Amino acid sequence: MINQFGNYSLLAAFFLSIYLVIHLSFLNNFKNFKTKPKVIGLLSVQCFMVIVSFISLLFAFIRSDFSNETVYNNSHTTKPIFYKISGTWGNHEGSLLLWLLVLTIFLLIFIFRSNHLSKKLTNLTLLFQEVIILGFLGFIIFTSNPFSVLFPFPKEGLGLNPILQDPILAIHPPILYLGYVGTSIIFSSSLAALVSNSINKLWVLEIKKWILVSWIFLTIGIMLGSIWAYYELGWGGFWFWDPVENVSLMPWFCLTALLHSIIVLEKRNQLHSWVLILSITTFALSMSGTFLVRSGILNSIHTFANDPTRGVYILIFLLILLVISIVIYFVFKKNIPEKKIQSFLISKEITIMTNNWFMMFFLSVVLIGTIYPIFLEVLDGSKISIGPPFYHKLITPFLIIFLVFMSVGPSIKWIKDKKFKIYYDQIFLLIISLTLSYLIIIKLGQSYLFSIPLLGISFYLFFQTSKDFLKKNLNLSQKISHFGFAILILSILLNGLLSKEFSSNMKLGDERKFDNKIMQFKNLETKNYSNFKSLIGKFEIIGENNKLIFYPEIRIYNQPLTITSEADIITNFISDNFLVFNVLKEDGYFNVRYQHKPLMLWIWISVILISLGGILRLFDQNER
Hints:
The protein has helices at 2-29, 37-62, 69-74, 81-86, 92-113, 119-143, 167-195, 201-232, 243-268, 272-294, 308-331, 348-380, 388-408, 424-444, 451-468, 476-498, 600-618, and strands spanning 500-506, 511-514, 517-528, 532-542, 547-550, 553-558, 561-566, 568-571, 575-583, 590-598. It is α+β, with helices and mostly antiparallel strands. Strands 2, 3, 4, 5, 6 and 7 form a six-stranded antiparallel β-sheet that branches. A four-stranded antiparallel β-sheet has the order 1-10-9-8. 42% of the residues are buried. The chain folds into four domains: 1-162, no CATH class; 166-398, no CATH class; 399-498, no CATH class; 500-601, no CATH class. The longest helix is centred in the middle third of the chain and has 33 residues, at 348-380. It contains 17 helices and ten strands. α1 packs antiparallel against α2 (37-62), α6 packs antiparallel against α11 and α9 runs antiparallel to α10 (272-294).
């Protein structure tokens, strides 16, 4: 019964969407730009229908209703209630329904916040957004229906992938979707502003808030995914340049450039085309991520589906939206303000534009590294893997220049600095930074060409952003975000330079020596839980001045039958000590891997600071 209820609610939302697209098109064609209460009422009903549909799927998971095919494929009676709830969106069909839910809620929020915008701009935004909603409703109903019924009814489900049964991964998709879906409002509103000739101060202030919202949630979502990969996948890293990781990073690059461009548009009435093009590109990249994750093209633990027909639907839908947006851009390009405002070489807007180009370069590298293997396989069947060395070698040289601009840019004035002032304290900080970098690199015996300048400029950015807190001409949100970014870059570099690893095959009672430390395999016990059996090891690592005790686990899940390794991580503000062990085929032997990871906690703290800066900017009471 609940399946039919959810399905009929989706169908009602689908037909409402068709009517709204026709109705809003009629209003715009006949220049009747008054947003009637009827439209708001229909949008509210549509949102309510999607909420009902989502709650129906949620109840089906909680009740373990295995007559529902989605529940059968992704749940099990022994699964804890928390993961039954998170399993609602931990699959292809449910994740799309969550995406649709956020789409409809965001549209309602936009309509209730748009009283100060022109009626034509509001109606056109509703129209473009409703086209996107209609496309997703069609995709869900006809290719990915979460309410497909099985008969006869199975008594038990197949279960959710145990690696996905994790508290952080339970909240990671919803937060990431809030970032993705926010780009659809930016996309729709930008096209509407262009068509309605409404690229003005009011629109800029409104769309800036949506850019900030999307950027904040996407930043937090990427961080949560990185934390999960770090402690759950067992390899001890926080970013592997996995294709599915990359598809979330690409729109982040675009959103960051868009955020800085909208500030220039607000302050100097420049970069109109940058804002419009980046708005379209950011949404296109978000949709491309949806296509790649659900097409079966990518082989990753993060992917949801392996049905190419679903990917084709999204690809066609994305191409239609892109063609429409490109046509609209060139047809209505005359509506972009062409007021000539002189820009000087040494000005804040020029440094922002320069950094935008660097963002586009980083985006291009990640895009090529992600899609080139796909095209190569399609063309001649060859399979290649592009890993971290590709990204590091291409990005590093340009990252150095980017960090230089980021160090000096905030201190430069709008319009024009009469002369570029270099103060003695800046020279002193640069010398200190490069010297510190040189001593660290020489001490570690590194020979990479760009090691000294990259680490030196990272220290310099850190010192400069720290010093910015003493200045009164910069807003607090900018200071915090830039300071957080400086900590992020510095923490990643030092983490990579100072990390140590030891790996060995051991059995109970064995002892290994490494780096003036002794590792002992002290104990192994078994515990039974409702949905898995756990082998808990006890390891001691004895150093000259301390002793660390670890309790890593090997979990054997009953449904589906899966073996996972759970690392034990001892964390403090200086470093992480990471230990994981895995079963080997040899009787009684386990592969044990220990890693010392400096400054790991500061990587997460830095991203929180970056997001906090965005949050403060969003709620800045002085902004009008």
